[in-house]
Each structure stands twice: as structure tokens, then as C-alpha cells.
Amino acid sequence: MQRKRLIYLVAVVALLIAALPAAAIADSPAAAPNASPLQQGETPDTLVEQAKALEAEHSAPAPDAATAFSIPDGGSYPLFMGVDDITVPAYLMDVTNSATIQAFVGAEVWGSAYDDVNDRVLFNDGAVLYEWPVGGTVNLLGTITDAAGATQVMVGLAFYNGQLYGTKNIANEAIWAIDTNTLVATVFIDYVDADLDCGGFSADPNDGTFYCTNDDASPYGAGLVIINPDASVTPVTPYPAGQTDIDGLAVSDDGYAYLVIDEPGNIYVYDLVGGAYVTPLTAPWTSAETFSAGAWIPPAQLEPVCQAPQLAIPDNDPVGASTTINVPSGGSLADLNV
After folding, report:
1. Which fold has domain 66-301?
2. With a threshold of 0.90, does the pTM exceed it?
3. Which residue of 72, 86, 111, 170 sits 20 to 30 Å from the alpha carbon of 151, by its own alpha carbon?
4. What residue spans in the chain does CATH classification 2.120.10.30 cover?
């Protein structure tokens, strides 16, 4: 972890110093609302994340992800999560016991959101957007740009009412609306860059409220916040003790916020109705990464599959004989050959 972070810290300093005029380096004024990350005196973790985002805006798109995994029989695994390492699988988690199954492997996951219209998880690797049809194979959709064609790197994604949204950790930091057909992004809610470091991002599936995990200590404090339509910010709760950098977030349809970390440890669960943290889950990661992401797939969308062996019904039964097949509630018969 430290080696990776050191590499990105060196990269961000080099990129930002190269971008600044000599006079500005020699005599830096107080940070403006949309000042560069170097001028804002960000934390080491934030500088690492910003360095990776800056690098991604100047890099070629990532290759296709590979190797999908199907959902096993039974169970409920509504919490999707991933990190920015192509060797680490994205997972689905059972939020009652932290059990996980692999969703896919072979792609970096910086941000993610569940598209309930098309039953897919949309996720990004920098500016490159992918889709994972739930239980299917990852598909490359293309590169996110603004209307002028400039690459736009997102670090968080949210989906509500048919619309994909994203957040950035480098200018212009805002909530962006992303057209999933053209992949053109436009600023939707333009909050003050210096006030938030919004890594984890999610929309309440019931009413579209935007939540973000904010790593900036000032002015709102590091923790879970709401970004309002008028760009004002409402603090919800501070991070748990000892936490300063949480990059993944998923808000469930039953009123919980899942704060997904990018290293081994706890996935913190906040009860939005009760106003308190509840028993945390255990992250599946075995290494420390830079970015993490979460998304909530309503359990009703993850239909259990019962793959029974071939059932043969003799054709020489007496006339009037019957055979009964019991199908569990919500199940169905398929691939019948009568």
C-alpha cells in the first residue's frame, strides 16, 4: 500500500508543479474555492486519489474486463462492491453475514451504481464506463467526456430515475449528469470544490437524495453528508473513530448506508432512520487499494436460481396418473421438453 501511495504522491506533485506557473509556486496565495489540489493542502490519501484521477484523464481507455461469474443457487447478495485493482474480483455480499460471491474479475472499479431500468451495474475505471448485466459478462461502454470532448474522470457513481450521475475529486468537483447513450457529462450540482472530497457517492433509491462520503475535515467534517439540489451540504454523521478515508458508498432501499473501504477491515453500516451505526460487515479485501465502490441491488432483482437435474416422467403410466412438481414461491419452470 505504501509503495503504491508513494508512487502516486510523486506523480501528483510532478503533474501539479508542471501545471503551475513559476510565480505561483514561489508565492502561493490562499486557496480559492476551485484551487488546485496542491494548493488546498489535501491529506496524503486524497493526494494519492487525485494523482490517479489526473493520470487517468491523460491515459488511454482501459481494456475490456474479463471473466464473469454467475449468481449461485439461493441466498441474497444485494451489496455490490469493487476496488481499483484488476486482479481483485468485484463481489456481491450478503449483508446479514458478510458472505460474498464473485461478480466478475479483470476490471478496476472506481465508482459503481445499479441501473434498475436495465438490471445492470454501471461502473467506471477513471473515465471509462462499463456495464455488468447482473449475472452476465462485463461490457465496455466507452469514455466519459464533457460537451467539448474533454475526458472526465469520475470517482463515484449514482443512479436514480433513469439517470446516471458521477462525482470527481479534481476540478470541476461537482455532481455530473452522465448520458448513458452518448457518455457526455454535464455539471448538475456545482458545489464548492474546497468544501468536499466526495469519494463514495450514492442516491437513495426511494427519493433520489444524494449521499457522499466526504474525506475533507473542514468545513463539514469527515463523514457521511447529503448534497442538496441547491449545492448546500447537510452533515449526516461523522466517520467511525479512526476513519478518515472511505471511498465507497451504497444506500439501500430499506434505509441503510454501507460505507465501503478499500482495504481489509470493516464495512460500516449506518441506519439512516435510527440515526446510528449498527454492526459492521467485514470487507473481503486482502490488500489495500486506492479506490473502492459500492452499489445496492435490491434483493428482489437477484432471483435465486434452482438448477434441478433432468426430470423424466414415464410415458407408460396408467391413464389418469399424475405427477406433481412443487415450485417454490416466486419460482418458475424453464427449458421444458414435453
Report:
1. Neuraminidase (2.120.10)
2. no
3. 86
4. 66-301
